[in-house]
Amino acid sequence: MTNPPPFIVVVEDEDHLAQGLLFNLQAEGYATHHEANGDDALAYLLQPPQKISAILLDCMLPGRDGFSIVKALRDKQIYTPVLLLTARSRPEDILEGLEAGADDYLPKPFDLNILLVRLKSLLRRTAWQSNPPSAPEETACPEPPAPPYTFDNCTIRFDALELITPSRTTHLTLMEADLLRYLTERESQIVSRKDILEQVWHVHEDTDTRAIDNFIVRLRRYIEVDPANPVHVITVRGIGYRFLANPQT
After folding, report:
1. How much is the pTM?
2. Which of 162, 163, 160 is nearest to 152 (CA)?
3. pLDDT, tens digit, for every residue of 137-158?
């Protein structure tokens, strides 16, 4: 019995763009659904008739905007991958969507091939969450999921987008997981805000933005015993941050 094709919901109010996306997605073998109004889209996404594989979500919509839609989904613990489509390319605007819980973004106008690659990447990571990484099909993947990273009493499962502590398991967005991976791979090194923007989220900007601090605050809530007095994710005033796996040493 064959599996059904991935089901992609396109939320876009520009009709010509939406129809082009639907046509090309269907040509790639995806099942699709389209919403053009933010309020209608959220109502549909909260009670879809079938499991949604990913959402292509425009930021600027009639009614509720894309930022509030993705936040509402995450507040309801709905973690369907979301790719934001935004004509607002300022780092602050992009980070607003990522802070709300989006998994990736693509500025308009975009190349269709790039969108399809980004979408496939989201679907591949979702598949990693659903299937054991030791399965033969997964071990042959050219980009295998990263192994778990353990420090103090925390374990980060990058393949499952989970951060496990003695008290709870937290579901991470792709962007949160990418930020944690960037920090842990540079354990004890000072990492600037500009490096995070450019290397983690590929936001190229000559000046720093303080919006990145909101992500750090959220990560501290996940991993610190006392987020107000962090010992793992340390602020280096005027520069950025440093991750310490073993702060006692």
Report:
1. 0.67
2. 163
3. 444 444 555 678 999 889 998 8
